[in-house]
């Protein structure tokens, strides 16, 4: 799976990539069958019904499957993503992010914004103004570094929301499905919806029976 799927590009410079994964649908069955002191080595067609029921009824067996992703996304997306704490707890499980206290390299910015302003000419002028704002911020940042300011302070000049950051996210299948469900909804911000779709494209081949039910909540 890791080799065949690889990295999925999102927005202009972002991506989601599977770093590692533990467990599959046989693991979910194994966990469920422990109630009867039974082991499961292979999946039979009869097991599909059990997988569907487990997903539908919200059992905790999905917590035995864990995945690590590398994500590169604008900070505004990272802030929304960071809110998923149950099953992706940032202290117990994992979230490790680029620190702009230590990295001085000029960052990437999310520039190719679809403003959805709906008025002819508006998009272009917003994009021009936004790009000027980014470029001015970068110039001030680099000047502050040249003047001897430490990176942790110089970063105050960088326009924050559009700055690309990169992190590792480790979470259980239950938590990942919760993230996909909430952030695929039309109420979610357009950019994070694209990331949710990318995560889903990576996860679904490994959990083809379970994930649609966990995300959709119905058979
Ligand atoms: C469209 C959208 C708009 C949003 N707008 C805002 C906003 O304006 N401002 C803002 O601050 N946040 C906003 N959020 C973030 C939102 O409030 C959640 O923090 C975020 O979606 C994570 O969801 P969660 O708490 O369910 O996830 P997790 O923290 O991972 O929790 C997972 C699940 O565990 C259970 N759980 C977690 N904690 C508890 C608890 N203490 N007690 C009982 N059960 C618990 C719940 O079932 C919960 O759904 C928005 C989210 C979305 C999708």
Defining traits:
binds flavin-adenine dinucleotide; five-stranded antiparallel sheet; 219 residues; alpha+beta; 9 helices; 43% helix
Largest sheet: 5 strands, antiparallel
> With helices defined by DSSP (H or I, 4 residues minimum), what is the helix count?
9
Order of helix and strand elements from N to C terminus: HEEHHEHEHHEHHH
Q: What is the tally of beta strands?
A: 5
Beta-strand content bin: 15-25%
Categorize the overall geometry: elongated
What small-molecule ligands were found? flavin-adenine dinucleotide
Rg (CA only): 21 Å
The strand line-up of the biggest sheet is 1-2-3-5-4
Helix content: 40-55%
Stretches with pLDDT under 50, minimum 5 residues: none
**Which structural class do you get from the secondary structure elements?**
alpha+beta
| Average residue pLDDT | 90
What is the CA-CA span between the terminal residues?
25 Å
Please give a structural write-up.
The protein is of the alpha+beta class. 43% of the residues lie in helices and 16% in strands. The chain has nine helices and five strands, in the order αββααβαβααβααα. The protein has helices at residues 2-5, 25-33, 45-57, 75-81, 122-146, 151-154, 173-184, 190-203, 210-216; strands at residues 7-10, 14-22, 66-74, 94-97, 164-172. Strands 1-2-3-5-4 form a five-stranded antiparallel sheet. Strand 1 and strand 2 form a beta hairpin. Helix 2 crosses helix 3. The longest helix has 25 residues, at 122-146. The protein starts with a helix and ends with a helix. The mean pLDDT is 90. The site of flavin-adenine dinucleotide has 9 residues, from helix 7.
């Amino acid at each position: 799976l890791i080799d065949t799927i690889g990295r999925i590009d999102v927005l202009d410079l972002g991506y989601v990539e599977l770093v590692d994964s533990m467990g599959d649908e046989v693991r979910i069955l194994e966990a469920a069958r422990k109630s009867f002191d039974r082991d499961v080595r292979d999946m039979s067609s009869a097991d599909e019904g059990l997988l569907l029921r487990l997903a539908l009824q919200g059992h905790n067996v999905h917590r035995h499957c864990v995945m690590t992703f590398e994500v590169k996304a604008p900070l505004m997306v990272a802030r929304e993503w960071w809110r998923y704490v149950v099953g992706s707890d940032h202290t117990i499980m994992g979230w490790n992010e680029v620190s702009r206290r230590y990295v001085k390299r000029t960052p990437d910015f999310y520039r190719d914004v679809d403003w959805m302003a709906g008025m002819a000419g508006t998009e272009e002028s917003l994009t021009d103004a936004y790009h000027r704002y980014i470029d001015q911020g970068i110039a001030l940042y680099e000047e502050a570094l040249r003047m001897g300011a430490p990176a942790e302070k110089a970063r105050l000049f960088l326009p924050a929301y559009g700055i690309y950051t990169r992190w590792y996210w480790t979470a259980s299948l239950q938590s990942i499905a919760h993230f996909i469900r909430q952030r695929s909804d039309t109420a979610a911000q357009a950019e994070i919806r694209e990331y949710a779709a990318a995560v889903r494209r990576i996860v679904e081949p490994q959990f083809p029976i379970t994930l649609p039910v966990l995300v959709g909540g119905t058979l």
